[in-house]
Amino acid sequence: MTRQEVNSVEQFVVRLANRAGLHARPAASFVQVAAAYASQIHVRNRTRDVGPVDAKSILGVLSLGAEQGHELEIQIDGPDAAQAAAALRELLEQRLPAEDR
Amino acid sequence: MGRRELCGIPLVAGIVSGSAWWFQAEKEVQPRVTATGQTAWQLLQEARQAAVEELRALIELRRAELAPDDLAVLEAQVLMIQDPELDRLVTEALDRGLTVEEAWEGAIERTRKLLEALPDPYLRARAADVRDIGARVLRRLRGVDRQPASGPGGILLAEDLTPSEVVALERSRVLGVALVAGSLTTHAAILLRNRGIPAVIGLGPALREVKDGTVVTLDGERGCVILEPTEDEVAASQERQSLLARVRAAAWEQRNEPAQTLDGIVIEVGANVGSLADAVRARENGADGIGLLRTEFLYLERETPPSEEELREQVGAILDAMGHRPVIVRTLDIGGDKPLPYVSLPPEANPFLGIRGIRLSQQQPELFRVQLRALCQLRRPGLRIMLPMVATIDEVQWARQVLNDVCRELQESSGVVKTLELGIMIEVPSAALLADHLAEVADFFSIGTNDLTQYVMAADRTHAALGTLQDPLHPAVLRLVAQVVASARQKGRWVGVCGEAASDLTAVPLLIGLGVQELSVNPDLVPDVKAEVRRWSLRMAQDVAQRALQCRDAAEVRSLVRHQREQPEESTPRQS
């Protein structure tokens, strides 16, 4: 019996709560988390209407010009979409804002 | 024997002497790698891997020394080298038959331009990182192992330095840095400053004539390099260096004390602030208040204007950071050069002569009203409002009317609201010339020397070739300052300066000598400016200021002040 890879799709919107937005350090963390998953991940800055860009590309992520208060739309497509979604949410909603304190 | 001195732009203070040596590989011509196709891809991947390893080793080497933000930038560079977006651009180019170098340079160039077009200055500065990693990979591709630290030690000369090259400098060997290039990327400049390496930039092509091994003295205070100094000069510069270090340490010690002249006149030294982070820095550096709170950061980079609540909250946070110290909030100062999505402005040929500052507020009264409502509700002692770009008396009267209306509304809906002091920026020549009338309608003046200089001298302040026309110490500008202060005095108003001039130590005695009572400066410079005030008596400052008004140009003014300053015995009060 062959194990079949099941691709799933996840999509969600987050409002960037951390002070620096996706500047160097937060952008690097974001890319590193995204790169740990096999799924294709794209991110768009809804506030500035830029993207979507490859979430595994630091240059792409920086070019979003994402700042505090901007809304990001994240689209994940692949075998580990659910896990990737959970990890990115945790990063954007908990870990990065916590670093401000 | 022709002893020469080259002068450029001072970047990091400090005076050092040593032998000059050129950044290795600066003049080497490296053969280009012209591989194409699959071979090109392989070679490039190896070069990128080597560059990643090189950069990681550098990060480890300097981890303990660098600020967390500086480290973060280098770590982001590691990711940039491996970026999948670059993969895509390179593959496309190789498919079109380009060589490996053409493909890589093309990909770097496109990405760099993309980042350079971003509105956020911090992200825009990352374009320099792209250039930085581009060069690093290219070097590895050509098999060049560029080791900037491997020189003999002394004063490093270079065309330009990238941020990672600054990080790679061996602090124990690099006494100072002198560059041909006139503008260093912000981050490379910050790194030099953070690492405390005295530096002068913008020395121009003349620097290229300096040979390896030439003994030089680099003066990061004045922005000059002395070639082949005499022994006496070296000794004198060493003495000056240790004196400066003591002065600086003393300035830091006394940063929280008021800035009082030798004859006991207190000058308020505030900070120019454009974010909460700036305000925190201002306090750490002992600022007596905020002489200029730029509110543009509350309006940029968003689709809709900020609400009254948001404004109240964000300005309130800055007031909190400053305790009960005075804060002057400048109303929105924006024009055609920084368009906002929610303000429709027709394109202008000359945005600096167009609809900006108070002119924009008159066109968009709702934006202005909301800002004033937010400020009035903050009800803090020491909070004042300041109008930018005032050119006429009726502009101030209009703003005063709006402020009165807003206060009345608030009083009716929520009880007692005290009105706020309303002052103006003096940056348009007409305002300086009408200062006597304006003093009747405005509560205080703050001179914005950058813009005033630009308008008086008809010289774009961003124009690279007009340096001598952009000096706020030009007698033409100083004469206007003198006139403004005299007019204000007659009506019992005070005058501050919040332009770049206030941060320039040479300008300090001139401004206080002309009767300026408040200086608002870059937050980091507050201790130094306070220390400078303490060096002078008002009487001496008045004397030098009066003589400066008679000078013919800015250079003459500067040398006058320098001469006066370098005679310390004269700047201490004589005993009878």
Automatic annotation (TrEMBL), chain A:
Annotated compartments: Cytoplasm
HPr domain sequence ranges: 9-99
Domain of life: Bacteria
CDD domains: PTS-HPr_like
Mitochondrion listed as a keyword: no
InterPro entries, alphabetized: HPr (IPR050399), HPr-like (IPR000032), HPr-like_sf (IPR035895), PTS_HPr_His_P_site (IPR001020)
Keyword Cytoplasm: yes
Record's keyword terms, sorted: Cytoplasm, Phosphotransferase system
Biological process, per Gene Ontology: phosphoenolpyruvate-dependent sugar phosphotransferase system
GO cellular component: cytoplasm
Signal peptide: none
One Pfam family linked to the record: PTS-HPr
Family: Belongs to the HPr family.
NCBIfam families membership: PTS_HPr_family
Name of protein: HPr family phosphocarrier protein
Organism, scientific name: Thermomicrobium roseum
Phylogenetic placement of the source organism: Bacteria, Pseudomonadati, Thermomicrobiota, Thermomicrobia, Thermomicrobiales
From TrEMBL, chain B:
Role according to the record: General (non sugar-specific) component of the phosphoenolpyruvate-dependent sugar phosphotransferase system (sugar PTS). This major carbohydrate active-transport system catalyzes the phosphorylation of incoming sugar substrates concomitantly with their translocation across the cell membrane. Enzyme I transfers the phosphoryl group from phosphoenolpyruvate (PEP) to the phosphoryl carrier protein (HPr).
Keyword Amino-acid biosynthesis appears in the UniProt entry: no
Keyword annotations of the record: Cytoplasm, Kinase, Magnesium, Metal-binding, Phosphotransferase system, Pyruvate, Sugar transport, Transferase, Transport
Active site: H187 (tele-phosphohistidine intermediate), C498 (proton donor)
Taxon lineage: Bacteria, Pseudomonadati, Thermomicrobiota, Thermomicrobia, Thermomicrobiales
Enzyme Commission identifier(s): 2.7.3.9
Subcellular location, record wording: Cytoplasm
All copies of domain Phosphotransferase system enzyme I N-terminal, residue ranges: 8-126
Residues binding phosphoenolpyruvate, per UniProt: R294, R330, N450, D451, R461
GO molecular function per UniProt: kinase activity; metal ion binding; phosphoenolpyruvate-protein phosphotransferase activity
Official protein name in the record: Phosphoenolpyruvate-protein phosphotransferase
Top EC class of this enzyme: transferase
Family of the protein in this entry: Belongs to the PEP-utilizing enzyme family.
Binding site for Mg(2+): E427, D451
A Pfam family per the record: PEP-utilizers_C
PROSITE patterns: PEP_ENZYMES_2
GO cellular component: cytoplasm
Organism the protein comes from: Thermomicrobium roseum
InterPro entries in UniProt: PEP-util_enz_mobile_dom, PEP-utilizing_PTS_enzyme, PEP_util_C, PEP_util_CS, Phosphohistidine_dom_sf, PTS_EI, PTS_EI-like, PTS_EIN
All copies of domain PEP-utilising enzyme C-terminal, residue ranges: 253-535
